[in-house]
Structures are given as C-alpha cells and as structure tokens.
Amino acid sequence: xxxxxxxxxxxxxxxxxxxxxxxxxxxxxxxxxxxxxxxxxxxxxxxxxxxxxxxxxxxxxxxxxxxxxxxxxxxxxxxxxxxxxxxxxxxxxxxxxxxxxxxxxxxxxxxxxxxxxxxxxxxxxxxxxxxxxxxxxxxxxxxxxxxxxxxxxxxxxxxxxxxxxxxxxxxxxxxxxxxxxxxxxxxxxxxxxxxxxxxxxxxxxxxxxxxxxxxxxxxxxxxxxxxxxxxxxxxxxxxxxxxxxxxxxxxxxxxxxxxxxxxxxxxxxxxxxxxxxxx
Length: 279
Prior knowledge:
Blueprint: H1 3-9, H2 13-23, E1 33-37, E2 49-55, E3 73-79, E4 82-88, H3 93-96, H4 103-111, E5 116-125, E6 135-143, H5 168-181, E7 185-192, H6 201-209, E8 214-216, H7 220-228, E9 232-242, H8 253-262, H9 264-277
Parallel strand pairs: 1-4, 1-5, 5-9, 6-7, 7-8
Antiparallel strand pairs: 2-3, 3-4, 5-8, 6-9
C-alpha cells in the first residue's frame, strides 16, 4: 500500500483499537496529557520518567516521518507529576500530501484517555520584538493552506467550532508557568504555510497585514484533529529566526535545528512547568 493510501486510512476505528490494545499493557501512568513535540522541543521528552518508548512503525495508523529533528517515537511515562503520552515528531503535509497524517496518532491518544493536547513547533517571527530563542503561546491561527484534515469525514461532527481552538484557560497557565521561570512569553496568531520552501518577503508582508505574529509549516492540522476528537489544545511556538525579508540570515532547516537546539533546555522547562500546573 502506498504512503498516501496508508495516511488516508489512518485513524479508522480498527487501527485505533489495535493501537490501544498494543499500548495499554505498557501504560503505568494513565495519560491525561498528550504532548506533540516539534523541532527544538524534544529535549522535554528527556524529562519524562518511568518511560517506555514505542516506534511509530509499530503502531497502525501512525505516520512515517521524513524530517530531521522528528524521531517518530511515542513515549509513555510521567512528567510534572502527571501521566503523559509524548509524540516525538509529526508528519507534515509537505512530506506526502495528506494533511490528516496525524489523525491516527491523535485519535489513539484520545482513546487512551488524553484530554489535553500540548503541541509545539519551531516558527519564524514576524516582528522584531519577538526574537530568536523566545517563545509564543498561540491564541489563534490562520489556515493559509485552506486545507482541512476533516475532509474525509462523513458525519456532521466534522463541522467543528473553532472559536476557541486554543483554550484560553490553558493559555493563561502557559503565561503563569513562564512567569515562574522568569521567561518572556509572547502571545499571538500563528499562520500555517504549506512549505517545504520558506516564505518570500512578499508573503511575509501579506501575513503581517493579516494579523499574524508567527509562521510555520505545521500545527494547524493537528489542532483541528484534536478539537474534532474533543481535546483541549495549547500550542507553543519557539522562534528560530526572523521571517524572510526581516533579517539578512539565510534560512535553512539546518539553521532552524541549530537555533532550536540552543533553546532546548529552556523549552523543556516550560513544557514541564505547564504540565505540572494543569488542573
């Protein structure tokens, strides 16, 4: 079966049940929180204790990954005093086309008991006041790609209300956690662009005029999937660069990973502090 065909069937009830049966015996701490760690955030997984790892390849409906910095491992364990299920990496729409590639993974974690999705990404800053190495909690998003991971759904629950896609109470917790750590945390709108090429200066000017504060190539499909599954969502962006046209730096994935790695300890602290503060 082709990679695209695998993605199209990912997340069906049979695959989710098989995954739950595979994972349930490994669960020592029932997970209420799902963490989806993008580039620059995977150091947080090192703080998970009593951990058990399962490769995505062993779980039907989980994606194959092909991007540096994304390991393709599900880690079950304990973080900040809570049971967590950590997704070390995501599939991006630019890899194979489908925007619903994370559907099977997120539905599986919801079936395991996860009520909250805390997802993270590396992003470009659209403002000089938001510098490399700083973080932003997402308040809303612009789906510039205008594609949805719910287009294959057939029931009326596909019409998901996105008015509060990024939970206000969870955003407040993020600010509290950052304040306790003495970290500066921005808040703003995230624009999803398909990639894999970086944006042009003209595209960045367009996004600024539309009210975006950060730009990246992920996160929005996973937010939609999580809301469809009934999960509350918080999303954090790490600024790895100023966006195209705002600085003289040549943009590359290597540069993104390098900048993300420099902030790894800080982002890990923030993730753990947020998880610890969840009610």
